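User: I'm preparing a small set of examples for a lab meeting where we compare how different chains pack in three dimensions. I only have the primary sequence for this one, and I'd like the structure in token form so I can line it up with the others. Please keep the answer compact; I'll paste it straight into my notes.
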Amino acid sequence: MTTPTLHQTSRTPAIDVVYMWVDGAFPGYGDVLSRYAETSFDRDPARTRDNLDLLKYSLRSLERHAPWIRKVFILTCRPQVPSWLDLGSGKVEVIHHDQVIDPAHLPTFNSLAIVSHVHKIPGLSPDFIYLDDDILFLRPVTPGDFTSPQGRQYIFPDRHWAPRYDSAAAKRGEKPWNLALSASNELLDQLSGVARRRQVNHVPLMINRDLWQEMLERFPDAVERTRRSRFRADGNIAVEFMYPYFLLALGKAEFADAPRARASSGYLPLEDFWPWTAWKLRELKRRNPLWATLNDNFGPVPNPRAERLVKAALHNWLPQASPYERPV
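Assistant: Understood. Below is the structure token output for the 328-residue chain.
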């Protein structure tokens, strides 16, 4: 990779960003979801809740701290478009599921299935960053923050071990995400040998479109099984977890050391117990990593005081509207 600079230049590769987003309160969406949902996991409001406008603040952070990004794509279900989004800049584009996903698999509420299609977005750059809508950049970020001096992609390990399939599948009521990690681990064992692997979710993921496609083609049955599942289910795989380890097996990735991982990544669980959330907000600001995930751990009805705390912090951190927003 060419030596990166903060701003896009003729020598810097074009890099786009892809978000997955949905608003569970969008008119009619809840009715469609209820028609297909079967379990409490399927109905978990945290999976589709958009009560904090996190995508809006994530885009603000992108504009402020990664202005070298060429274009932003937001992948969502038709006909959703964020009400505050201004598409006039030409730098952001909404892509609906039916533009990249087989109609036989729609509607889908399975993020594991949806993310397996991100490389199919028309006009997407060869290298792009996949971002969850709850990730914020808190300091200036360059393409070099994702790769080592030798050009290998950094893997930012989590402190938790990914579960093994034999143990997770035996747990009654195990969360579908853990089952997907387990099934993914089993496939990675076939690729590079049996090993313990740390989780690597909750970080921006730099993806090479061709290598992503190559990985999917290595495991066609598991990918197809995941894509057929309208909700997360046993037997699904988490390709966003598998990809860094796929690169590692190819010699194209390496683990970031502990100081770099800590300086780069933050994780903030948003809880209804507002003193905890207030303390975690202060702690995150004190640490000031490059990026942070604000994960929705609220209950069915979020504590209004906790919500107000988070909204105030977001506005304090990122008060300047981005070009992606409609004038107020």
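A couple of notes for your slides: The first strand starts at residue 15 and ends at 20. Confidence is low (pLDDT under 50) at residues 1-10.

User: Perfect, thanks.
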